[in-house]
Every structure is written in C-alpha cells, then in structure tokens.
Amino acid sequence: MYIVGLMSGTSLDGIDAALVRMNNRGLKTETEMIDFITHPFPKDVEEEIIQSLSVNTSNVQLICSLNFKLGKLFSEATKEVCQKAGLPLKDLDLIGCHGQTIYHQPLQEQNMVPSTLQIGEPAVIAYETNTPVISNFRTMDMAAGGQGAPLVPYTEYVLYRSESKGRLLQNIGGIGNVTVLPKQATLDDMYAFDTGPGNMIIDEVCRQLFHRKYDEGGEIAKQGHVNEELLSHCLSHPYIMSHPPKSTGRELFGKQYVENLLKKFETVPGQDILTTVTMFTAKSIVENYRAFILPKTEIEEVIIGGGGSYNNTLIEMIQSLLGDSVTVLTQEELGFSSEAKEAIAFALLANETFHGKPSNVPSATGAKKAVILGNITFPPLKGSR
Amino acid sequence: MYIVGLMSGTSLDGIDAALVRMNNRGLKTETEMIDFITHPFPKDVEEEIIQSLSVNTSNVQLICSLNFKLGKLFSEATKEVCQKAGLPLKDLDLIGCHGQTIYHQPLQEQNMVPSTLQIGEPAVIAYETNTPVISNFRTMDMAAGGQGAPLVPYTEYVLYRSESKGRLLQNIGGIGNVTVLPKQATLDDMYAFDTGPGNMIIDEVCRQLFHRKYDEGGEIAKQGHVNEELLSHCLSHPYIMSHPPKSTGRELFGKQYVENLLKKFETVPGQDILTTVTMFTAKSIVENYRAFILPKTEIEEVIIGGGGSYNNTLIEMIQSLLGDSVTVLTQEELGFSSEAKEAIAFALLANETFHGKPSNVPSATGAKKAVILGNITFPPLKGSR
C-alpha cells in the first residue's frame, strides 16, 4: 500500500510530505520511505496561519477560509512528493494528514474545555488527489480523556521495537529527548524523558559568536578544544542528574543561559566554547543513559533523529562516550529521515486507522482507553465501500 | 439499521435529533421515523455560538472549545432520543450529524476562499455514544466546486419520489418554497423555486395587531373574512407571477412590507386582515402552481412541511383553491414530521455515505460532480473495519 503522510508543524516551515510503502500493520508493519519533500507556505498563507493562532487576531471567517486553503496546499504537497517519486497519483492508496494545529488546550481553563483544533480540510485533499484521507488524529484521544499528545510513541514502537536489540531513540531538536525501547518491549515497557539541551545551546553560541544559525555538520566544533573548566560548570546544572520523569523547555538552556555562560567564560576562545558546549550536549545525553537507563536495561543501539543528527561532531562525541558496546546510528542510516520522521508517523497512524485499529498509547496521553484515531474522508471515484 | 440524524439550525432553538429505522439505500430506501426530540442549548452555549458566528467576536480558542462542547451536546441529544424511544444505545448503528454551521462563504471574497465550517466534534459524539458518526457533509460538495447547499434535494428525491404520482413538496417557513417531483422522476427532472411568502406576513401581522408570535392552528384567520381589495393589492406584487427560477428573502415580504400594508388598509378590521394575508399566502402558492407547474406536469399530491403545515386555515385554503384533483397532505399525515425533516435528511445522507454512495445533486449545488458527502469517525469498540 502506498501512503503519503502529511505534517505541518508549529515552526511553519511548510508542509512535510513523506511517501512510504507500507505492508501489514501493528508490529508486522513493513515500512519503506520512498521520497520526502517540504512544500513551503506562500507568504500570505503563513501570515494567515500566524493570525489564526492567536485569540486576538483570529476570527471565524479567517479559520473557515484557511481550512480550505490549507486543504489545497496539502493536496499540492501530496502531488509533488508522488511526482518526485514517479508514482502516478492513481496508484496512491491513502493519505494520513495531521493538519496544522491552530489551537491546543489540554486542560480546562475557565469555561473553555479541553480541546484541540487542526485544520486543512480533508474533503479538499480527498477530492483533489482522488484518494481517501485520514485526518483529525488528535481529537479522538482527547474525547477519550487524553491530552491528544504525544502520538508518536505508537509509531516509534512499531518502527523501532526489536526482538533482538534494546534501542534508544534520541531526538535532538532544541531539546534532547530519549525514548527507551527495551528488547522485546510491550507498549507498557516504553518510556521517555528529556535528557536536557539538544541543539539549543550550540545554536545560540553560533548566533552570538559566529553569526550563523547553526554549526553545519559540526565543522566549527570539530576544530576547537574542550575547556574542562567550562565543561564542569555546564555539567553541574541540576537538570542533568535529576531523576526522570522530567521535562525541560526553552527556559532552562535558552538565550539567557548562553549569555551568562559567555560572560563568565569570556576569555575562552570562541571555537573552544562551541566545542565545549557540543561536548556538554553529548555528555548530558550519555550521562543520563548511564544514570537512569543502562543500569536496568540492555541497550545495543542508539538511533539519533532531529536536526542534531546532522552535526557529525556531536554524533562522534556521543559514540565515543558510549564506547563500542553500543552502536550509534542516524535515522538516515536506517533508510528513514530525521526531517521526515513526523510525516512518516502520520502515514503509519493512517494505516492503523484504515485497518480499524487503535493507535494512541493511553499511558503516554492519559486517555482512558485505546481508541481509533482520526476520521476517513472518501474521494469521489475510488475508495468507495 | 437504526440511525440518528442530528441537526442544529441557524435559529439556535437547540439540537434536533431524529431516530429512524432505515433499510437499503437510494430509491430502495425504506424509512420509518421512530422518535424525535429537540435538545435545547444551555444559555451559555447559545451565547458562545452567537459569539462564534461573528468576525468581530469569534476567536480560535472559543471555536476550539465550542467544537468539543457541541460534540458533547450532540451526543446527549442522541442518547435522549434513543432513551425516549426505548432503544438501547448499543443497538444504534450510525449517527449522521450536520453540526452547527458557524460560517458559510459560498463565493470568493477578497482573499477569503469559498468555504464552510460546521462544528460539533464527531470524535466526541462517536466516543460518548460508541457509534460511528458521519459528519461534515457540506465540505466535499464545496471541494467539488459546489456551494455546499442545498443538500435536501437528494433526500426529498429518495423519500418522496413516486412511480405512480406527481408530487409537490411545499415548504412553508418564513418563505414558501416548492420542489417539483414529477411521477417517475430522475434527479435531473427535479426543480425547485420560492413561491413567495410563507409564514412571514402572517406572523408579522400577528405580532403587530395581536401581540402574538403566530396564528396558532390558524384559529384567528378562521374567524375573519377575506377583504377582496386588500387581496388584489397583495396579489399584484410582481414577485408572484415572475417566472422561475426565482428566489426571495426577508427583504420583499418582511416587516416593512407589512407596515405599509397596515397603513394603507387601516380601516379593515384586524381579523379580516389576518384572514386576507393568509388567503394571499395560499393564493401565492397555488397561482404559482397553476402558472408554472400544472400546465406541464401532472400532479396528484402536495405535501406540506415547515411551520405553516400547522396552520389549518392556510392548509384548507390551499386544498380548496386546488380543488379535488390534487390531495394536500402534511408531513405528519405521511408519518414524518415537519420539525424533524432536516434531522431525518441527515440520517438519510449518512446512510448513503455509509454505503459509499454520492448524495449531492450537482444541478442544485453547482458542484462539478456527484461526491460522497461527509467523513466517518469510528468509535473505540464497534464499527471497526
């Protein structure tokens, strides 16, 4: 079965579209990523999305119209990824569309009830592509009392759980986050927590000292030396050794943190600072494994995703800190793609719903039970029942 | 198959829920209405709906939360009508929910594209009732280039088309509207137009002269006499004899029209005025039949729906004007209900979608082709595929 997964994140970079071939379902799912594109938003649509996100600038007409506009753009992204892969649209079997989240309220607030709102009209996508669409994945989990997020745990379980290997899925976005998948795990054996900073400190140092957005390929960090005093200072941050469950955000390791650091260590050369915060990021990840995961769970592989997987210096540091008994791999080395991860996840969730199977993880979202996520919209000519 | 149809109209009276038994589909559909209720909106929800309708008072948080609140209320209406009928919820097979329209923009306006927005989260309805839900009927017709309305023609075709009788479906709401269903009609043989005033003039005269909202059962009109001069004046309105297709709204026969009438005929007793405008309403309907329908189409039955079907004086006038060759019936006499008409329509449209069949009428909505309306949301335990 050929499925396109569509995701449009809060960063508003555009629509991620992954074309995958998928057979079977559940743990028997065979997944192969065929192609991936990011379809950028036209400037005016990006502005309308930003308007729609805020209580002060949103209104019903804007949301009504934008829902249809985004439906059109999701269908264009679908056509583009199929064309790039050389797959005729008529051979596409299913689309799984996360949509664009414009509001997410996990908890009651005054007279506003827990609820979530994704837009990108599935009827428009189904009509324009002539393909069945599964969409609105988060609402059913919330109807069942969950927070509607995270929905990735089920997909990580299906894609990475192994009969013979314990695996860690390390995401390195702004923040570092690890999902633990013991060998032969059940869904209940999985757990996840934030390890600490991801690219956040590295990127901020790049901006302040090198006027670059990030350290491409880790090239700058590769040329410097670790300053042990700075490294010790960083590692003394109480978050690193605090016990999971734990989660962090931009407030602990953001701009203010880096400004204080640069002031305190202003005599250290810029290159060495970048090398040292890269090592700190690697160590914060590995120290968390050593303290909280490795003592109780046998781990053979660490699979790294997110923007940080493209920082070769960071990856090499992690591998070197872990030693030879653990293999560090990137999503790309497994035939996936860090960029495509979420789009692939929604292709996989669509596949489950298409087979009438639940795919939320109640222990992750807080839902009262496992439920079938999303609804299905039928195109005019094929997919009739 | 037991189906609940749910409708919540722009009048904000509450949620109409009709429980029907339906077998087969298309022209073979057998429909029996089992029960009907109107579930009123709590005052605060009604106020939130009103807020959500306007560009000035709506916002994304309100719409996100209200979508879930209405989902809950639609599920309560479903439970209530099943309980009233003594049907255990577990025996309910399907729900068709129109939802609450909060915006409908059939045509492009500046940078806002043609679009429509109905809310009342189907995941909440499906979860709370444990029943599959078909919802969002209008979006696919708009995706196909239609105006998303009217959707009733298909349901009228299925419910009233006859092999042996030509039928007129006369709706008497504020405005009068007739749908023509010739004997052995195809969908393309159907057509509809506004005959002129429905209850609009009668109700406004009641308010101004009798301080009542309407003439209950036609009791006041029954006691007066027709004033021929006033009647001739009314019948001279150019709308009555103008050629279909034609449509009218509140602007032609509204408050201003009645005020002018009462001023010009201030010497006529109030009761006679009411009797005369009731006769005018009857005549405007029947004259339209005589001029534009009966010369070319054989008609055996006129089936009257809408609030006007409860005005016995009006119905008797229509019957008497038509003579014995045509039988005038109300929805109630056929086992249906004027109040329940739209809720039944969405049960029927859900039935078609559940069978994978299109149910818009492109000649009525302007869509480029027939499409499958709505999407399906599956409950946690039954309805899995």
Structural topology:
The structure is a homodimer of 385-residue chains.
Chain A: E1 2-8, E2 15-23, E3 30-39, H1 43-53, H2 60-85, E4 94-105, E5 115-119, H3 122-129, E6 133-135, H4 137-143, H5 152-160, E7 167-172, E8 175-181, E9 191-197, H6 200-210, H7 219-223, H8 228-235, H9 238-241, H10 250-253, H11 255-264, H12 270-293, E10 301-305, H13 312-322, E11 327-330, H14 341-354, H15 362-365, E12 375-377
Parallel strand pairs in A: 1-4, 4-6, 7-10, 10-11
Antiparallel strand pairs in A: 1-2, 2-3, 4-5, 6-12, 7-8, 8-9
InterPro entries (chains A, B): Anhydro_N_Ac-Mur_kinase (IPR005338), ATPase_NBD (IPR043129)
Pathway (chains A, B): Cell wall biogenesis; peptidoglycan recycling; Amino-sugar metabolism; 1,6-anhydro-N-acetylmuramate degradation
Pfam families (chains A, B): AnmK (PF03702)
Mean pLDDT of chain A: 95
Label the overall shape of chain A: globular
| CATH fold naming of the largest domain in chain A | Nucleotidyltransferase, domain 5
Pick out the low-confidence regions of chain A.
none
Order of H and E elements of chain A: EEEHHEEHEHHEEEHHHHHHHEHEHHE
Largest sheet of chain A: 7 strands, mixed
Helical percentage of chain A: 40-55%
Total of domains of chain A: 2
Count helical runs of chain A. Answer: 15
Main interface by residue count: A-B, 63 and 63 residues
Oligomer type: homodimer
- Compute the gyration radius of chain A: what is it? 22 Å
Span between N and C termini of chain A?
A: 17 Å
Task: State the CATH superfamily name of the largest domain in chain A.
Answer: ATPase, nucleotide binding domain
Proportion of residues in extended strands of chain A:
15-25%
CATH class of the largest domain in chain A: Alpha Beta
**Class inferred from helices and paired strands of chain A:** alpha/beta
CATH architecture of the largest domain in chain A: 2-Layer Sandwich
Number of strands of chain A: 12
Protein name (chains A, B): Anhydro-N-acetylmuramic acid kinase
InterPro entries (chains A, B): Anhydro_N_Ac-Mur_kinase (IPR005338), ATPase_NBD (IPR043129)
Binding site for ATP (chains A, B): 9-16
Pathway (chains A, B): Cell wall biogenesis; peptidoglycan recycling; Amino-sugar metabolism; 1,6-anhydro-N-acetylmuramate degradation
